[in-house]
Inverse folding.
């Protein structure tokens, strides 16, 4: 395997938490396809409409003031895989270490399942039949060797993190919070969907409107 490449985000883009940096940041993440393993040092707050991770990627934030902010009407999770698959493992060796991730849920546009009109609403419960449609903070489908550690995930819809078709997953010292549980009764912290094997959850701190985690 090629030598790991370390990329400092602030050398390539503006990390002000306001300006859309999706294209530039995704371009840095895509280097995992051509250069082998990468560590993206996200040394600031980047505003995005959602990012896709490739195998052999570490996303590292040095402190809680660094991370990702989901822009209004993004209609995507903050993080998902570039090649999600419900029956095959297509993504390996992913780490999300440190930082704050803000889903900005009150400003996301979704389709209301009653009127079928797009408006700002909370998405209904996560579908076990169609997890790809779930609107969550992190959506990880089809992965082997995943670590999420020392992360704060705020203001999510449906659930904070969703795992489906997974092997060897570690979630450690993770904080999940919704803005006000009184208005978020159907929101969960984690959804862990089968198939899957070898899961470790330690130090999960949550304030949700419903369940801590569902299997």
């Amino acid at each position: 395997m090629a030598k790991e490449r370390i990329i400092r985000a602030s050398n390539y883009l503006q990390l002000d938490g306001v300006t859309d940096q999706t294209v530039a940041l995704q371009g840095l993440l895509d280097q995992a396809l051509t250069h082998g393993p990468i560590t993206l040092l996200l040394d600031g707050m980047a505003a995005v409409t959602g990012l896709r991770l490739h195998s052999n990627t570490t996303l590292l934030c040095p402190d809680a003031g660094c991370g990702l902010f989901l822009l209004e009407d993004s209609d995507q999770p903050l993080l998902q895989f570039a090649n999600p698959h419900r029956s095959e493992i297509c993504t390996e060796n992913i780490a999300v270490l440190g930082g704050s991730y803000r889903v900005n849920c009150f400003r996301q546009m979704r389709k209301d399942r009653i009127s079928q009109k797009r408006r700002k609403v909370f998405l209904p419960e996560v579908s076990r039949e169609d997890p790809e449609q779930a609107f969550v903070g992190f959506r990880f489908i089809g992965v082997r060797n995943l670590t999420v550690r020392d992360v704060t995930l705020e203001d999510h819809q449906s659930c904070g993190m969703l795992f489906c078709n997974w092997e060897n997953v570690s979630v450690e010292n993770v904080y999940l919070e919704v803005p006000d549980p009184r208005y978020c009764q159907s929101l969960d912290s984690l959804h862990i969907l089968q198939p899957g094997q070898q899961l470790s959850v330690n130090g999960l701190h949550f304030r949700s409107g419903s369940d801590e985690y569902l299997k």
Observations:
- The CA atoms of residues 22 and 48 lie 5 Å apart.
- The mean pLDDT is 82.
- Residues 22-29 form the longest helix (8 residues).
